Amino acid sequence: MALIDAALRGALVALLVLVVAVLLRQWRHPRHADLVRVGIALAVSLIVQAMAASPWVEHEVSCAVQSPGIGVSLGAAPLFWLFARAVFEDGFRLRAWHGLVWAGVVLLGASICLWSPWRPGYVLMRAVPIVFALLGLAAVVGPWRVDLVEKRRRWRGVVVGGGAAYALVMVALRIRSPDGSLGSGAALGDVAMLLVLTVLIAGRLLAPRAQGLWEDEAAAPPLPAPDMPAPPPAPVEDASDRALADALARHMGEGRGYAQEGLTLAGLAAQLGAPEYRLRRVINRGLGHRNFNAYVNGLRLAEARRRLADPAERALPVLSIALDVGFGSIGPFNRAFKAETGLTPTEFRQRASLADS
């Protein structure tokens, strides 16, 4: 069993090194640079974990020598969470506080020898992977309904969800162990599961031209002009999809379907009398949008910009416009408007007023 364990760990390390080597070439990828950097950091952490969690190291090497490896291994937990967010959140960006969270977790794990007699310290260290595994699952489940990229919905959920399940199983096994280490059988299962997950992820990461990860499945169109809140549908090949695209354009244009507060993809599909998967395909492939909420808010903000710039509506409160275009309250409207234009609605209206005078 020891030879099998060593062989699996060697294969895992070799595959992770290959992943790092390939990802380094994508370091400055125009769309996915943060995903690449998190992926590299996660792969390096898993390399350290594969070596630090081997039965020989855990049982034969002193705590002081193990502690740096334990810290880096524990740091894989927040990196998994960040990886899940980078995969599923369009526009995700790494922030300085992400690095501080990772550093804090690494220091916690690396200081294990200082508080080894303190039982709550072990409880805290076991809680860290659970917390970040749950956060990773939230990153998968949260945007699931509004994600329009079909391949991402099907494939990435399996991979990232599997990663969270792996983390939870490993924590459970370590909690059951009297000294927190893995027996030979559990260690073999650990490396086998990790190798399977790595093969699945590597198969995608090592394909730079794979649709849905490195390249956009459809280029996002420019935002609609203020006087045209609903963009015309792009040509689609399927006749039924063309009919649905026309119906969608009428409903979201003349019918102002986007102005319904709390509009969901399922609700819109029901209004159009179409299966949800077909509507998702039309909005993604025909109109180039990757997220349903972003698509709807783009239409809402287009009308809001037009009305804020209209001298005839200058006396109308901003809140009234926000509610009328479909936002539930002024806060989300202000945040979305500023993210879109770089200005608050009031500043935008003032500039439009100055331009007219």
From TrEMBL:
Keywords attached to this Swiss-Prot or TrEMBL record, sorted alphabetically, are: DNA-binding, Membrane, Transcription, Transcription regulation, Transmembrane, Transmembrane helix
Among Gene3D superfamilies, the record links this protein to:
Homeodomain-like
Q: Where on the tree of life does the source sit, at the highest rank?
A: Bacteria
**Could you tell me where the Pro residues compositional bias lies?**
221-235
Q: Where is this region: Disordered?
A: 220-241
Q: Where is the HTH araC/xylS-type domain?
A: 242-351
Membrane-spanning residues where?
6-24, 36-57, 69-88, 100-118, 124-146, 158-175, 187-207
Pfam families for this protein: HTH_18
rRNA processing found in the keyword field: no
Name of the protein described by the UniProt record = AraC family transcriptional regulator
Question: Which organism was this protein described from?
Answer: Pelomonas caseinilytica
